[in-house]
Write a structure and sequence with these properties.
Blueprint lengths: L3 H27 L6 E6 L4 H15 L14 E3 L9 H8 L4 H13 L11 E8 L2 E8 L5 E7 L7 H11 L8
Parallel strand pairs: 1-2, 1-3
Antiparallel strand pairs: 3-4, 4-5
Helix pairs in contact: 2-5, 3-4
Length: 179
Amino acid sequence: MPRKLPSMLSRLGVRLTYLLFFCYGSSVLAGSVSGPNIVWANLDLTAEGQKSSQIVRDFASSRSTDCNGSWSAQSLLYMTKRPPLIDDNLIRDVFLRGDVSRKKRLHYLLRNYKDPEVYDGFDGVMVYARNGGEVKIMSLTTGRSKISTYTAAVNHRPPKPESIKDAFCALLPPITRAP
C-alpha cells in the first residue's frame, strides 16, 4: 500500500498542474485586449484629403510608429473598409452638427460591431474634415461624450504631414473594450 501512495500523489500533482495552468493560463489570455481598434473617416473628398489619409495609412502601418506606447502592431485602423452603418452622414451629424441622438447611435455601432477581423467592437473613431478654411482631425472614444479636436491647418492651407501624424497620436482613443 505505501508504494501506491507516491504514484497517486504524482498523478494528483500532474492533474493539479494542468488545472492551475488552465485556470491561470486562460485568464491571462482572456484578460488581454489588443488594440486600439479605430475607425478612420475622411470627410474631405478632395485630392488633398485623400493625400492626408495616405499619410495616416503609411504612418499607422510603419513599424516605428508607437504613439508613445499607445499604438502597436496589434492595433487596427479601419480606413478603406468601414462598418456599413457608420457612413459619412452619421459622421457629419455627430462631428460637425453635434447631434446627441446620432452620437448615441454611433457609440452603439462602435461598441457592437463584429466581423472576421473585429470580434469585440471599436475603441473609437477618428475623423478628418475640412470645415471652412480649417482642417480638423477629431476623435471620439467609444462610451464617452467629449469630441477631441486638433486643428491641423488654417487659412485654406494644406496640413503638413508632421501635423497630421502628431494629431493622430494626440487624438488616438484609448482601449475601451473589456477583456
